[in-house]
Amino acid sequence: MRIGLFATCLGDTLFPDAVRATAVLLARLGHELVFPPDQTCCGQMHVNTGYQREPVPLVRGFAEQFGDPSIEAVVMPSGSCAGSVRHQHGIVAERYGDAALRAGVATVQAKTYELSEFLVDVLGVTDIGAYFPHRVTYHPTCHSLRLLRVGEKPLRLLRAVEDIDLVELPEADACCGFGGTFAVKNAETSSAMLADKMRHVTGTGAAVCTAGDSSCLMHIGGGLSRIEAGTRTLHLAQILASTRTSPYVLPSTPLEATR
Fold first, then answer.
1. CB burial of residue 80 (10 Å; 0-12, 13-18, 19+)
2. Half-sphere exposure of 229 (CA within 13 A, CB side)
3. Residue 190 or 71, more confident
4. pLDDT band at 253 (very low <50, low <70, confident <90, very high)
5. Summary mean pLDDT of the chain
6. Residue 27 and residue 44 in contact, taking contact as beta carbons nearer than 8 Å
7. What pLDDT, on the 0 to 100 scale, is given for residue 185?
8. PANTHER family this protein is in (predicted)?
């Protein structure tokens, strides 16, 4: 397939390794990757904060960048951004766009996927030859769980990883407390939710907490770093891209480096 890769804002600026891992993984599976160079933000943060008219240029840009008929699917390492494209873009286009925008959005929505659902639902694969000999726990992010309803798909992929020690995360479906601007506007509530999530993560004894959204991993990882938990956060794509011949090497935490 010819696949359009959407990096997302956070991936582009803070977590490029997750984007690269997505590209490596899809190329390893035999697909052609296209990276439209003028891609920008999907507009999710505007809509979530109540500004629905402002992201019209972003929604139009996304439709134009990925509307090329030769691009058979659009894939991104983010449940929240995929959810925005599939659900919010239509709302924005209907309320504030023209007929051309509505048509363009409908075309792109139909072929847009979060990474795990693309692998399982479209390609029909769960064992992709990954190797990751570490204890891992999985946090299902809110948008992937509730908006996209990816369900067990990320777990099915993780269970097929060679030598992984996958442990269940207690109260896994509870929000980590990030929610974009929610963490800023409701800092105390967000911190309390994060504390609960960190307690459950550290209780598993996992070396790695993984998820399909870098935003949630940034929030959880920041908290774990502050308490020197020794547990790292790593995007699902990076685990799936790791193989025996090219394994992902976990970096030492600051606490381990002093021992």
1. buried
2. 25
3. 71
4. low
5. 94
6. no
7. 87
8. LACTATE UTILIZATION PROTEIN A (PTHR30296:SF0), UNCHARACTERIZED PROTEIN YKGE (PTHR30296)
Contact between 56 and 96 under an 8 Å Cβ cutoff? The reply is yes
**Two tokens, residue 243:** 């193989």
Give percent of the chain above pLDDT 90: 89
Whether the domain at 2-122 and the domain at 135-257 fall into the same CATH topology: no
Rg, the chain, Cα only:
18
Burial profile 199-235: b = 16 or more Cβ within 10 angstroms, e = fewer: ebbbebebbbbbbbbbbbbbbbbebbbeeebebbbbb
For 2-122, give the CATH class: mainly alpha
Per-residue confidence (pLDDT) for residue 180, from 0 to 100: 81
CATH number of 135-257: 3.40.50
DSSP secondary structure string for all residues of 241-254 = H--SSSPPPPPPPH
CB 158 within 8 A of CB 164: yes
**Length in residues, the chain:** 259
Measuring CA to CA, which residue among 212, 199, 106, 205 is closest to residue 157?
A: 212
Q: If we measure between CA atoms, which residue out of 247, 5, 1 comes closest to residue 130?
A: 247
Residue 86 is encoded by which pair of tokens? 């599939």
Q: How far is CA 98 from CA 66, 109, 156, 204, in A?
A: 18, 16, 41, 51
Residue of 76, 144, 65 lying closest to 115 (CA atoms): 76
- Domain range list for the chain: 2-122, 135-257
